[in-house]
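Narrative of activities, Objective 1.

The group set out to show that a structural description can be obtained from nothing but a protein's sequence at a throughput compatible with the screening campaign. Below is one input-output pair from the validation batch, recorded exactly as produced.
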Amino acid sequence: PPKRLKKAIVNYVNTYIKCVQCNSPDTHFIKYDRTTLLKCQACGATRPVKL
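Output recorded for this entry:
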């Protein structure tokens, strides 16, 4: 079903791509000790991400 697929894609983008501070998609993953962080290139915000 297209609605479920769209919901899954939006959830993935919000969880693993978009910055929660500025909504920029310009992010990358950083491995810090045993934690993976999502770092925003636009505003510099970081947050932990479960992989």
